[in-house]
From TrEMBL:
Lipid anchor positions (S-diacylglycerol cysteine): 23
Chief place where the protein resides: membrane
Low complexity compositional bias, start-end: 30-45
Protein name: YaeC family lipoprotein
Domain of life where this protein originates: Bacteria
Assigned keywords, A-Z: Lipoprotein, Membrane, Palmitate, Signal
Annotated organism of origin: Enterocloster bolteae 90A9
InterPro entries linked: Lipoprotein_NlpA (IPR004872)
Length: 307
């Protein structure tokens, strides 16, 4: 009986020992697998981090390699069009910095002084007039687009309803005033001296059957002052900024008019820099298919590409 008890005890000890050995073997195998997986995960993470670092370094290097070109522009549509040209310009090796102006004098002064590499806000007649009045030597590097001038309603809703002695607001700078007067003449509201063309001022009006009061204001002030007049003749870019649509204008310049064929908006640079690599790249970007599509889809006739 004692022998049987002793044998059973020994057998139980052997079984327990075997069970313990089996259990202890399983954790050892799991730990090895986990270590291998962790090592692989760490290596993958390190590899991904290296790839990210390399990509960031490549982007930084590419950005550092771009040459900066600083261009002055009116907010709309010129700055908007420039923004649309940024990627195209970057592909040509230039990083575009846009400086916005809300008048027609500062961007030319800044270009003349060297604060800008170019500007994009004006047409050639205005540029020529500015040079003549200020002794500057700024030149056109290329015409980009045309913005139809429009007559917009103020106190009076239509040209037919325009009363005698109505107030008509026009730009006060020489080239834009002439353009406004030509548009008024085309509508039969006034008649200008023969041959005066793009040099016309209100002093050149020889017929004014409605005795219209022609009031000259700074071009940028016209949209804000429209309610003070019966009608206003407004530059395309300032009309766009004010949310005025060409389709709402009482009249616009004909596409074959003297103004339409003359007043293309240009990229201006200092004399001697019109053929520089930077200028060529800027003009090429602004006359790219991508920018043309942007103009046509965004402005719906208020901005007309000249390329």
């Amino acid at each position: 009986m004692k022998k049987n008890i002793l044998g059973a005890a020994v057998l139980a000890a052997v079984l327990v020992s075997g069970a313990l050995s089996a259990c202890s073997g399983s954790p050892k195998e799991t730990t090895a697998a986990d270590t291998t997986a962790a090592t692989a995960g760490t290596q993958a993470a390190d590899s991904k981090e290296e790839e990210t670092t390399a990509a960031e370094a490549e982007t930084t290097q590419a950005s550092a390699e771009l040459k900066e070109i600083v261009v002055g522009a009116s907010p709309a549509p010129h700055a908007e069009i420039l923004n649309a040209a940024k990627e195209v310009l970057a592909s040509k090796g230039y990083e575009l910095k846009i400086v916005e102006y809300t008048d027609y004098v500062q961007p030319n002064n800044a270009l003349d002084s060297g604060d800008l590499d170019a500007n994009y806000f004006q047409h050639k007649p205005y540029l020529d007039s500015f040079n003549a009045q200020n002794g500057t030597k700024l030149v056109s590097a290329g015409a980009i687009h045309y913005e139809p001038f429009g007559i917009y309603a103020g106190k009076t809703a239509s040209l037919e309803a325009l009363p005698d002695k109505a107030t008509v607001l026009v730009p006060n700078d020489v080239s834009n005033e002439a353009r406004a007067l030509l548009l008024l003449e085309a509508q039969g509201l006034i008649k200008l001296k023969d041959g005066v063309g793009l040099e016309a001022t209100k002093n050149d009006i020889v017929e004014n059957t409605k005795n219209l009061d022609i009031v000259e204001l700074e071009a940028a002030q016209l949209p804000r002052s429209i309610s003070d007049g019966d009608i206003a003749v407004i530059n395309g870019n300032y009309a766009i900024e004010a949310g005025l649509k060409v389709s709402d204008a009482l009249a616009t310049e004909d596409s074959q008019s003297l103004a339409a064929t003359t007043y293309g908006n240009v990229v201006a640079v200092r004399e001697g820099e019109e053929s520089s690599d930077a200028t060529k790249a800027l003009v090429e970007a602004l006359t790219s298919p991508e920018v043309k599509q942007f103009m046509e889809e965004t402005y719906e006739g208020a901005v007309v590409p000249l390329f």
